Amino acid sequence: MIEFVAETGSTNADLAARLRAGESVREGEWLVAARQTAGRGRMGREWSDGAGNFMGSTVVRIAPGDPPAPSLALVAGLALHGALSTHIAAPHRAELKWPNDVMVGPAKLAGILLEREGDAVIVGIGANLANAPDLPDRPAIALAGLGAAPAPESFAAELAGHLARDLGRWRTYGLGPVIARWLAAAHPVGTALNVEDAAGSRTSGTFAGLSDEGMLQLRLADGSLRAIHAGEVRYANPAGD
Length: 241
Prior knowledge:
The chain is α+β, with helices and mostly antiparallel strands. It folds into two domains: 2-185, Bira Bifunctional Protein, Domain 2 (BirA Bifunctional Protein, domain 2); 192-235, SH3 type barrels (Roll). Helices cover 24% and strands 28% of the residues. The strands form two sheets. Strands 1-2-3-7-6-5-4 form a seven-stranded mixed β-sheet, with helices on both faces. A five-stranded antiparallel β-sheet has the order 11-10-9-8-12, with no helix packed on it. A hairpin with a 5-residue loop joins β9 (202-210) and β10 (216-219). It is globular and about 50 Å long. The protein starts with a strand and ends in a 6-residue tail after the last strand.
């Protein structure tokens, strides 16, 4: 159920094209590329495709009775965090940052891009296993600097297993346990954050957990709470902003 290709433009784009063409893409099938020439991250950013890193996508079929589709960002984050954490040696620790980044300190280790296509959500994941890209606007880190980095092929199997289990829990027990587990794996409450919306407007505050729907809760300077439904979230400190 894991298809490997040597090179493609974007695994997310490939799965979207298959779905639009009416091809049967079952939940649990993965497309993993050794190299992407047009990989994308959130907010339209390019995603680096360093050799030995993981770049892959899968499909989740939304069924009646499932929790809200946007909460899949939390589910995918938990699966990715779990797969990565088994390879990280102490004292390092991976943390989740809303909505879908895995961080080690101020540096990004992995990210997720969710895209809707009909009744399916395409889950694209990029993880720095062997190499950390030189990003112009943020630090990055690779698993190789934190422990023993697995080969992309073996990591794909680990990640697929984690996501299948977390999807089962999401459907069986609902969103509440997902949020509780996500908070346990995230940076601490009180962490200073900056949030930038699509128009470039910035809001600063401290992390105050998640809402019952999985939205970011930001505590503003006046003590009020603001629910963040979308945006670019960064740590508000010189090392991570």
